[in-house]
Amino acid sequence: MQCKHTSSAKYDGYKAIQKVYSARLKYSDELNKNIESLIFATNAKMLSTKTKKLAEQYSVNIVSYNEIANMLDIHIVTFEMVLNRLGKKRLKIG
User: Fold this and answer.
1) Assuming Cys at both sites, which of 17, 20, 57, 66 could form a disulfide with 2, CB separation 3.0 to 4.6 Å?
2) 8 Å CB contact between 13 and 40
């Protein structure tokens, strides 16, 4: 998963799609298991056409502003929950 926050309503995101796709093999090797889904999440309301095409080509799921807003309407997430999650140990790859 690659997440990008932007202060602009429009975001390119092309490099983020490339990063999440290229990380697949490294994580698969390090974890010794197949990575079945790739996700790019952003608060941007619009992504470039070339980014959407690349995501489709690489089978990367895009979760953008509207989907995130809908999820947050359904699932309550507090600032405390975010801070708690950020404080957890993260996976470090080579």
Assistant:
1) 20
2) yes
Encode pLDDT of 10-43 as tens digits.
Answer: 778 889 999 999 999 888 988 899 998 999 999 9
Question: Per-domain residue ranges for the chain?
Answer: 2-86
What token pair was written down for 66? 């509207």
Give me the helices (H) in the chain, please: 14-31, 49-58, 65-74, 79-86
DSSP 67-84: HHHHHHHHS---HHHHHH
- pLDDT top residue among 55 and 14: 55
Identify the CA nearest to 67 among candidates 41, 36, 37, 85: 41
In single-letter form, the type of residue at position 65 comes to Y
Residue type, 42: T
Give the tokens for residue 6: 């932007």
